[in-house]
Fold:
Amino acid sequence: MKLFYTGPLANAELLLIMLEKHGIPARQQWADPAEPDEGDLNRPTQILVEESDYERAYALFYTERQDEL
Structure:
């Protein structure tokens, strides 16, 4: 698995759902597993995708689209 995103839990959960809707399996984990889980939505979280899906995931979320206004 390859690291795709690191950021707040709230954003990571939305990204995870969007990846799954595009058929890209992903895994979520804490950036620092030793940090206590206090329900903080800003807690740093990582999203990992399979290396074989990384390029497609990157194209979906990070490549600048030419067809937008």
